[in-house]
Fold:
Amino acid sequence: MGLEDIVPAGVITGKDVVTLFEYAREKGFAMPAVNCTSSSTINSALEAASKAKAPVIIQVSNGGGGFMAGKSIKDPNAAAAGSVALALHTRAVAKYYGIPVVVHSDHCAKKLLPWMDGMLEANEAFYAQHGEPLFSSHMLDLSEEPDEENIEICVEYFKRFQKLGIFMEMEIGITGGEEDGVNNEDVDPEKLYTTPKQVWAVFEALSPIGSGFSIAAAFGNVHGVYKPGNVKLSPEKLGNHQAYAKKMLGCENDKPIFLVMHGGSGSTDSEIDLAVSNGVVKMNIDTDTQWAYWDGLRTFESSKREYLQGQIGNPDGADKPNKKFYDPRTWIRKAEESMVKRLLVSFEKLHSTGTYEPSPESGAPQIGAGKKTVNPTVMMMAGVVVGSTATMLARSMMK
Ligand SMILES: [Zn+2]
Structure:
């Protein structure tokens, strides 16, 4: 049985997310979680996933949400409003790409919990209307706090998540480097490697509440791209976490834990392979797609520079109009095409290419092609409602 027989296309939540991760862990592939800050980058990620015939994770960060809301907005709820907007855009278009989509939010440190609370409010409102949460999954990152407090806060939030059918990712141990305004460049090197006992403590605390959680255990990962040799990745340590958990559980499953890899940029293929074979089901992609998006625009500008210096006048004639070159749809599309191309490499590296083959009879647009299908008419209506819900939610947050 293929993945398309057990998980529907479109945005998935609840049990479907767990089913997807279980399938990936068993088959030995991982999903790219692509940091998106605009409708354009979301569409690029969805396009790449559709071309790769693979599930994808659309990931929004606090800074990405703030950007989506608009940089001029200083309201403390702007990041939540923007994250909701990104999630709603994803929901409005995901069904046309014919692959399963997980909508997830990235690192949420203790000081950012109001952002999480804002997203939870939107989840509750969406749940009341549609019987499922707006987001599929959220990450809580209390890794800077003492372990005991980290786990305690995760337990508290996981209980709330479970009521709505939301998956949870947590972090224990620290991802080094700098990302989204959080700088861990000078962190104690020992904290860059999580121990099996720490991971087990998390598993033991969360598993009685539900199975829908994953752990970002640090194994020397660093956000961003650094010169080779500066980072010492030890993905073999992830195998130790699984072995320890297996021993403690006395279970048959060699990989009882869902693991997540941050800071994968610049990792070698064999490091990624080892991480995935040790139960990593999600790898975050940000730095490499940021570069690819820019590089697409850079290449376009350099090849068409003489057509981009004024509204009229180019090498073809002094009175020739340049509108078709400076129309944002032209140059943003170049950025998108470059990002799609880079993401196809990520799907390959994570061995997820071709893992989702929608049935031919379902045709396009493919709406919930799997088992738990949502009636297309209802989905269309939901699409309309979503628009006004977005405005309502954004309004209520701005109060
Ligand atoms: Zn990260």
